[in-house]
C-alpha cells in the first residue's frame, strides 16, 4: 500500500492487517509515504511492515517511526533477528517460500521467536508473483503455530481456501491479484473477497473485542431506538468512519488535541505511591487536560464531526457536569448553539460546573423526569433529538447509546491508551504494563484506557465500578454485580433493573459513576472475561483521594479515586508495572472532600 | 385472521384508536377503560405497559407511566388482568411499550401471553427492524400477534417498503418526528408526505398517530389514511373527575 486515498478506502473494509512494503527492490515499495497517513490507521487494524533481509536496527527504527504493530519478514532472516524484533513488542510473521521440496523442519528454530508463519509461493523475488503453490504440501506441516496463507490468492481460488480445513490457518494474505496497479488495491474486488471469505472470518470475529458491522460486541450493542431517531443515527453510522479518517479531519483533530487540550497528557511515575504498594505505578494524567478530564477528547472529535455533518445546534447530557462542560467548551470554540440536559439533583450537587457551562454560553436544562439524574438527562436529550432531528447533533458523553456511538466515542478516547503505549515504551522499554486500571460509570475513560491493549491478552484490564455504600446495601452503582442483560438508551448491555425490567436508581457519591448501565463493549469485556470488573465503596474512594493528595500532591476526581482505591486490594509480586487512568481532577469535588475530612 | 385484519378489511369509515396506560389512573382501571372505549364506539385500543424510561414519550405519557409504576403495574400483573379481556371486550386490542420490559418477560413468553389473552398486536417503538427480523419475527408469527412499525416523514422509501413487507396489520404513521403529545400541525410539507405515501400503494393500511387531539386533526388524518390514534389527549382526559364514566364525551370531541 502506498496511496493515501486507497489506504483510507481499505481501512473502511476493516481488515485485520494492512501491509506496507519497506523493500526497495519491490515495485510496491512505499518510499516516502506520509508518516501520518500510516499512523492514522486505527489501531484495531495492525499496521504491518514487510521487509526483506533488512538490518534489525533499521526495522526497529521503522517500527518506531510508523507505529508498526507487526512485521512480515520475507528474506532469510535468522531466528535471532526475529527474536530481537519480537522483543520490541510487535508481532513477527516469518515468511517462507514453499514448494514441493520444502522441508518444514527448518521452521523449528523459529517456533519460539515468531508469532506466525506465512507460507508463500517459492520464487526468486521474495513473493509477489501472483502464483499459488500446491497447498497439499501443507499436510506436511506438523507444528501447532498458526500461519498466514499467501501467494496468488484471487477471487477464483478463494473457494478452495474455504475448503482448507485447518484450525492453524490464521489469516489469508491478499495482494497482487487484488491490485489495479502495483501497490494500489481494487477495493470492489476486495469487498467481494471478504464476502466470499466471511464463513471462515466469522470465527475470528467472535473473538474480537471491537464492534462488528451490525453494531454488536458479541451479544451486546445494536441500535434499539424508535423510528424517530433512526434517520439521524443511520446518517451518523454511514458517515462517521469516513469523516473521522479524512486527513483534514485528523489534522484538525490532532492539532486541537495538542494546542487546545494540551495533549499528550503526561504519564507520571508516582514514586511514593509505588513504594507504598510495591509496584511501579504510573498515572495517565487526563486530569491535566483542558477542562480537567478525559471528556474533552470525545467532544473535540464530535464537534468536528457535527460541523462536517452540517449541524448547527448541539445537545448533550451530563452527570457530574464534566461532559457538559467539555461540550459547552467546544461549542464556544466553534460558535455553535449548546443545550445541556442535567438532572435536577446533579445541578444542585455540581454547582461550579453548571456555572462554567453557563459562562461559556450554554443553556443548562434541568431534567425533572424520573430520578432527576444522569439517566433522565439522557432521556431528555434523546427526546430533544427526536423533536429536532434535522439541525441538531447529540454529543453523547460516554461509550453508551445506539451504535455507532459506543464505537465512535471509543475511537476518540482511544488516544489515552495510544499515548500510554509509546510513553511507557519510552520510560520502561516495553509498551505493555502488567495491569491497567480505570473507573467505570458508562465507561468512556476505561474504554479509552483499554482500547489499544484489548488484543494484548497478557495485559490485565481492571474496571472499577462504584459500590456506593456497599454492593448489597441497596445504595450502589456496581452494574456488573447487580445488573443483568437489558436495553437502555438504545443499546443492549448490562443494566440495573427490577424483575419487571424497570431501570433502578443507582447510587454513588461520585456523580460521574452514578449510571445504571455500562457501555455495550464493557458488557462484552465482562462476559468474555477480557477485563475484570470490581467495585469500590464511597469511603474507600475518598480515602484513596486523600492518599493521592498527600503522597503525590494530586487531588483526583472522586471518580478516578475509585480506580486508585483498588490498588489497596491488589497483591503485587514486586515491580509489576501498573497504569491507572487518572480521568479527572478533584476541584469539582472539593466540597465533598471538605465535608468528609473536615477540611 | 385476527381481529385487526377483520376490522381493516370490513369497516369503511375512518377508524379511531385510543391509547392509554395500564394501571393509570388506578391499578384496576385497565379493563374498565377498555370496556368504556368499546361502548363509546372506538374501533380498537392500545394499552400501554409502563416503563421507567419512555424516551419516545412526552410529559403526559411519562407521567401516566410513572404513576402506573407507582401503583404497582407490571407486565405480569397486566397479563393477569387481561385474562378477563375477551369476556368484556370484543374490539381489537394492541399492547404498546418499550422493549426492555418485553425482553425481561421473555419474548417468546410475551408473544404466548398476548395470544392467550386475545391481544391482536403489539407496538414496541424501540425494537428495531433488524432485530425483529433476525431474532423475534417467528415468535410473533407463530402466535398470530402483529408487530406494528412506526414511520416518520424522514423514513426513506426503501425502508418504508421493507417495513411494509414485514408488517401484517397496519403501519403507524407519525405526522412529524416528535415525542408523543405534541399537537398535529398539518402543513403543506406533511400533506406532501401523506401524498407520497398514498402514491407508494403500500400493502398495509396506515393510521396516523402522535398529535391527534380534536375533530380537525382527526378529520385531516382520515383524509389521507384509514384513521387516527389518540394517546396523550385521552390520558390527559383520564385525569379529570369521573373520567371513566364520561368516555363517550371524550370520544365525541374527536369523532362525531
Based on the model shown, name its key terms.
heterodimer, A: about 600 residues, alpha/beta, TIM Barrel, Rossmann fold, 3 domains, 7-stranded parallel sheet, 22 helices, about 20% strand, B: about 260 residues, 6-stranded parallel sheet, 3-stranded parallel sheet
Known CATH architecture of chain B = Alpha-Beta Barrel
- The CATH homologous superfamily name of chain B equals Aldolase class I
The quaternary organization reads as heterodimer
Distance between the termini of chain B: 30 Å
Count of all domains of chain B: 1
Give the beta-strand count of chain B: 9
| Percentage beta strand of chain A | 15-25%
Biggest interface, and residues per chain? A-B, 33 and 42 residues
Share in helix of chain B = 40-55%
The shape of chain A is globular
Radius of gyration from the alpha-carbon trace of chain A, in angstroms: 25 Å
* β-strand number of chain A: 23
- Category from helices, strands and their pairing of chain A: alpha/beta
User: What ranges of chain B have pLDDT less than 50 throughout 5 or more consecutive residues?
Assistant: none
Describe the sheet with the most strands of chain A: 7 strands, parallel
Structure description:
- The complex is a heterodimer of chains A (599) and B (256).
- With 599 residues, chain A is α/β, with parallel strands linked by helices.
- Chain A folds into three domains: 4-205, Aldolase class I (TIM Barrel), CATH 3.20.20.70; 227-251 and 293-407, Rossmann fold (3-Layer(aba) Sandwich); 260-292 and 411-597, Rossmann fold, CATH 3.40.50.
- Helix content of chain A is 38%, strand content 19%.
- Chain A contains 22 helices and 23 strands.
- In chain A, the strands form six sheets. Chain A has a seven-stranded parallel beta sheet, covered by helices on one side.
- In chain A, helix 11 (322-334) runs parallel beside helix 13 (351-359) and helix 20 packs across helix 21.
- Chain B is an alpha/beta fold and 256 residues long.
- Helices cover 47% and strands 14% of the residues of chain B.
- Chains A and B meet through helix 14 and strand 20 of A and helix 3, helix 6 and strand 6 of B.
Amino acid at each position: 500500500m502506498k496511496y493515501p486515498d486507497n489506504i483510507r478506502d481499505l481501512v473502511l473494509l476493516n481488515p485485520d492487517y494492512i501491509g506496507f512494503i519497506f523493500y526497495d527492490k519491490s515495485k510496491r515499495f512505499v518510499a516516502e509515504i506520509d508518516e501520518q497517513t500510516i499512523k492514522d490507521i486505527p489501531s484495531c487494524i495492525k499496521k504491518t511492515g514487510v521487509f526483506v533481509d533488512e538490518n534489525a536496527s533499521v526495522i526497529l527504527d521503522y517500527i518506531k517511526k510508523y507505529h508498526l504493530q507487526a512485521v512480515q519478514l520475507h528474506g532469510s532472516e535468522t531466528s535471532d533477528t526475529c527474536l530481537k524484533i519480537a522483543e520490541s513488542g510487535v508481532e513477527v510473521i516469518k515468511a517462507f517460500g514453499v514448494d514441493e521440496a520444502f522441508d518444514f523442519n527448518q521452521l523449528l528454530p523459529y517456533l519460539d521467536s515468531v508469532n506466525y508463519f506465512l507460507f508463500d509461493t517459492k520464487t526468486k523475488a521474495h513473493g509477489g508473483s501472483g502464483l499459488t503453490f500446491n497447498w497439499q504440501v501443507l499436510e506436511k506441516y506438523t507444528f501447532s503455530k498458526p500461519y498466514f496463507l499467501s501467494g496468488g490468492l484471487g477471487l477464483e481460488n478463494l473457494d478452495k481456501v474455504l475448503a482448507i480445513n485447518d484450525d492453524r490457518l490464521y489469516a489469508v494474505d491478499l495482494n497482487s491479484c487484488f491490485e489495479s496497479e502495483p501497490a494500489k488495491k481494487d477495493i470492489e474486488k476486495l469487498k467481494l473477497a471478504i464476502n466470499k471469505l466471511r464463513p471462515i472470518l466469522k470465527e475470528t470475529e467472535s473473538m474480537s473485542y471491537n464492534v462488528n458491522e451490525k453494531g454488536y460486541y458479541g451479544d451486546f450493542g445494536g441500535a434499539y431506538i424508535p423510528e424517530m431517531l433512526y434517520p439521524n443515527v443511520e446518517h451518523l453510522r454511514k458517515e462517521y468512519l469516513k469523516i473521522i479518517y479524512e486527513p483534514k479531519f485528523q489534522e484538525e483533530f490532532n492539532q486541537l488535541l495538542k494546542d487546545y487540550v494540551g495533549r499528550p497528557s503526561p504519564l507520571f511515575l508516582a514514586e511514593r505511591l509505588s513504594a507504598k504498594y510495591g509496584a511501579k505505578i504510573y498515572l495517565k494524567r487526563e486530569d491535566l487536560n483542558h477542562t480537567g478530564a478525559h471528556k474533552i477528547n470525545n467532544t473535540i472529535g464530535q464537534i468536528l464531526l457535527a460541523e462536517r455533518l452540517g449541524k448547527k445546534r448541539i445537545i448533550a447530557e451530563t452527570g457530574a457536569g464534566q461532559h457538559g462542560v467539555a461540550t459547552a467548551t467546544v461549542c464556544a470554540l466553534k460558535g455553535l448553539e449548546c443545550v445541556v440536559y442535567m438532572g435536577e439533583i446533579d445541578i444542585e450537587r455540581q454547582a461550579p460546573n453548571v456555572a462554567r457551562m453557563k459562562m461559556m454560553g450554554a443553556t443548562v436544562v434541568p431534567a425533572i423526569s424520573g430520578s432527576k439524574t444522569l439517566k433522565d438527562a439522557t432521556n431528555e436529550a434523546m427526546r430533544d433529538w427526536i423533536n429536532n432531528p434535522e439541525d441538531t447533533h447529540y454529543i453523547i458523553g460516554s461509550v453508551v447509546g445506539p451504535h455507532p456511538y459506543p464505537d465512535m466515542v471509543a475511537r476518540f478516547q482511544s488516544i489515552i491508551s495510544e499515548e500510554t503505549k509509546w510513553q511507557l515504551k519510552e520510560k520502561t522499554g516495553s509498551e505493555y504494563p502488567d495491569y491497567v486500571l480505570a473507573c467505570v460509570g458508562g465507561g468512556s475513560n476505561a474504554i479509552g484506557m483499554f482500547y489499544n491493549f484489548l488484543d494484548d491478552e497478557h495485559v490485565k484490564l481492571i474496571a472499577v465500578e462504584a459500590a456506593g455504600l456497599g454492593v448489597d446495601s441497596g445504595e450502589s452503582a456496581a452494574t456488573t454485580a447487580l445488573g443483568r442483560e437489558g436495553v437502555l438508551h438504545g443499546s443492549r448491555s448490562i443494566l440495573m433493573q427490577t424483575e419487571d425490567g424497570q431501570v433502578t436508581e443507582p447510587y454513588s457519591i461520585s456523580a460521574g459513576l452514578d449510571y445504571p448501565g455500562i457501555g455495550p463493549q464493557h458488557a462484552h469485556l465482562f462476559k468474555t472475561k477480557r477485563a475484570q470488573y470490581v467495585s469500590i465503596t464511597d469511603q474507600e474512594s475518598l480515602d484513596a483521594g486523600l492518599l493521592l493528595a498527600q503522597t503525590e500532591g494530586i487531588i483526583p476526581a472522586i471518580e478516578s479515586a475509585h480506580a486508585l482505591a483498588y490498588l489497596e486490594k491488589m497483591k503485587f509480586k514486586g515491580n509489576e508495572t501498573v497504569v491507572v487512568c487518572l480521568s479527572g481532577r478533584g476541584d469539582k469535588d472539593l466540597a465533598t472532600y471538605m465535608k468528609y475530612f473536615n477540611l | 385472521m385476527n381481529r385487526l385484519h377483520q376490522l381493516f378489511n370490513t369497516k369503511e369509515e375512518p377508524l379511531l384508536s385510543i391509547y392509554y396506560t395500564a394501571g393509570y389512573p388506578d391499578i384496576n382501571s385497565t379493563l374498565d377503560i377498555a370496556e368504556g372505549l368499546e361502548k363509546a364506539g372506538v374501533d380498537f385500543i392500545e394499552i400501554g405497559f409502563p416503563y421507567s424510561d419512555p424516551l419516545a414519550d412526552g410529559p403526559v405519557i411519562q407521567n401516566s407511566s410513572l404513576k402506573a409504576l407507582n401503583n404497582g403495574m407490571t407486565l405480569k400483573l397486566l397479563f393477569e388482568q387481561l385474562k378477563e379481556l375477551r369476556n368484556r371486550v370484543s374490539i381489537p386490542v394492541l399492547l404498546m411499550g418499550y422493549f426492555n420490559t418485553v425482553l425481561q418477560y421473555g419474548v417468546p413468553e410475551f408473544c404466548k401471553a398476548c395470544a392467550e389473552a386475545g391481544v391482536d398486536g403489539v407496538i414496541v417503538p424501540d425494537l428495531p427492524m433488524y432485530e425483529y427480523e433476525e431474532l423475534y419475527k417467528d415468535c410473533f408469527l407463530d402466535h398470530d400477534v402483529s408487530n406494528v412499525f412506526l414511520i416518520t416523514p424522514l423514513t426513506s422509501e426503501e425502508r418504508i417498503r421493507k417495513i411494509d413487507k414485514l408488517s401484517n396489520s397496519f403501519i403507524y404513521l407519525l405526522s412529524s418526528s416528535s415525542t408523543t403529545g405534541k399537537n398535529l400541525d398539518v402543513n403543506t410539507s406533511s400533506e406532501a408526505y401523506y401524498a407520497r405515501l398514498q402514491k407508494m400503494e403500500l400493502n398495509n393500511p396506515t393510521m396516523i398517530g402522535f398529535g391527534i387531539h380534536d375533530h380537525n386533526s382527526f378529520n385531516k388524518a382520515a383524509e389521507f389514511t384509514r384513521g387516527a390514534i389518540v394517546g396523550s389527549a385521552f390520558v390527559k382526559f383520564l385525569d379529570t373527575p369521573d373520567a371513566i364514566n364520561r368516555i363517550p364525551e371524550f370520544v365525541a370531541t374527536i369523532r362525531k
